[in-house]
Amino acid sequence: MPANRLAGSAASSARSKFFRRGIAAVAALPLLALAACGYGSDAKNDTDAKQKVAAGSTKIDGLDSVKIGYFGNLTHATALVGREEGLFQKELGATKAEYATFNAGPAEIEALNSGSIDIGWLGPSPAINGYTKSKGTSLRIIGGSASGGVKLVVNPKKIKSLKDIKGKKIATPQLGNTQDVAFLNWAAEQGYKVDAQSGKGDVTVVRSDNKVTPDAFKAGSIDGAWVPEPTASKLVAEGGKTLLDESSLWPDGKFVITNIVVSQKFLKEHPKAVEAVLKASVETNKWINANPDKAKAAANKQLEADSGKALPANVLDPAWKSIQITNDPLASTLNTEADHAVKAGLLDKPELKGIYDLSILNKVLTAEGESTVSDAGLGAS
Fold first, then answer.
1. Distance between alpha carbon 52 and the CA centroid of its chain, in Å?
2. Which residue from 26, 33, 43 is spatially nearest to 103, judged by alpha carbons?
3. Are the C-beta atoms of residues 36 and 209 closer than 8 Å to each other?
4. Are 149 and 319 in contact (CB under 8 A)?
5. Is it the case that residue 159 has pLDDT exceeding 90?
6. How far is residue 232's CA from residue 245's CA, in Å, rounded to a whole number?
7. What is the DSSP letter of 356?
8. SS3 sequence, 239-284?
9. pLDDT-based confidence at 49, cuts 50/70/90?
10. Residue 222 in contact with residue 159, Cβ under 8 Å?
11. Which residues partner with 244 through β-bridges?
């Protein structure tokens, strides 16, 4: 169902303009976006023994391949480790696991909508935006992956306490992305006035790609950043100080940072393939939590394969510790994050009923002897 609109209001017009710009920017260059993400380019990993199709295995749902998308972030550790350890390929049998890496949610949503990927690891704000823009027809959230791993890191020479944030320049990854929404909500709760679109106000919000934020911080063009791992730990390595861990703002210290999404078309046509990927995800999460050091090394190895550069220990170790790997999508926190986007003026009140379908995940969890998870009343009927 579409988000409710306040017809004729200036606020609604601004929000609509924001979303139209986002769609146009992505749609204008879909092929370029995929090329930049390196879709199908990681031949080194595909030829590794762990990625090879086992002899005698059969195709699932008659599919030649399942295309999986994720970000090169530690908050997407399930995808990184599952790929590196060959666990997705193991569950998919003779159906080839293919991969695409992304830098931003809108590009991954475009790839999902176009069929360039079938299943993806994705942050909550892009999932909400993708679902509401399509009027509830584009995707379903089918599982959880990670909680936490987001921090406010500042220059300690300029900012010594939270009250010193006023008047400073704070970076977030992208207008309307998960961390941008979180920071705008936090700033509002402190009593600061900030225009969400321009980022101007009592605090200046600078939208900066995670890849360039450490250089901007080092150069002094920003005073701090509200960012996910490993960017937060990179800033600390450059002399920054963690002023706030976002997990401290949530009940039980848990909030969704990464979900698993699937196109509704693929879910309807190939449920066995979806089940295989979810089974691999659950197995991967179990292995990560049982073998944290080995999993950390595996994630870093895949990051190196994807980006050409591994993370140094002084970045990898603290970043890894701040992320919780989970099968639970923490659905109640998704609803709260949507409310934050509405309060920030980036989203009209959305109708999220139907965004989840956790039936296959719960089937897998039951078979594994693990507890099932809740959709907080937002499941597809």
1. 27
2. 33
3. no
4. yes
5. yes
6. 10
7. B
8. CCEEEEEHHHHCHHHCCEEEEEEEEHHHHHHCHHHHHHHHHHHHHH
9. low
10. no
11. 152
Give the pLDDT score at 15: 41
Q: What is the mean pLDDT of residues 6-18?
A: 38
What letter represents residue 100's amino acid?
A
DSSP H helical ranges for the chain? 10-28, 30-37, 43-46, 77-84, 87-92, 105-114, 124-133, 178-189, 213-219, 231-237, 264-269, 271-290, 292-307, 313-321, 331-344, 359-367
Q: Considering only CA atoms, which of 369, 292, 264, 278 is closest in space to residue 327?
A: 278
CA–CA separation, 123 vs 135, rounded Å? 19
**What DSSP letter does each residue of 31-62 carry, written as one string?**
HHHHHHHTTT--HHHHTSGGGSPPTT---STT
For the chain, what is the mean pLDDT? 88
In angstroms, how far is CA 256 from the centroid of its own chain? Answer: 9
pLDDT of residue 106: 85
pLDDT over threshold 50, residue 27: no
Domains of the chain with bracketed CATH: 10-147+254-367 (3.40.190.10), 150-252 (3.40.190.10)
Which amino acid does the sequence have at 127? A
Share of the chain above pLDDT 90, in %: 79
Structure tokens that stand for 101 in this block: 């890496």
pLDDT-derived band at 105 (thresholds 50, 70, 90) equals confident
Both tokens of 176, joined, read: 């309307």
For 140, 325, 334, 380, the CA distances from 137, given in Å and listed in that order, are: 9, 28, 18, 11
Residue type, 150: V
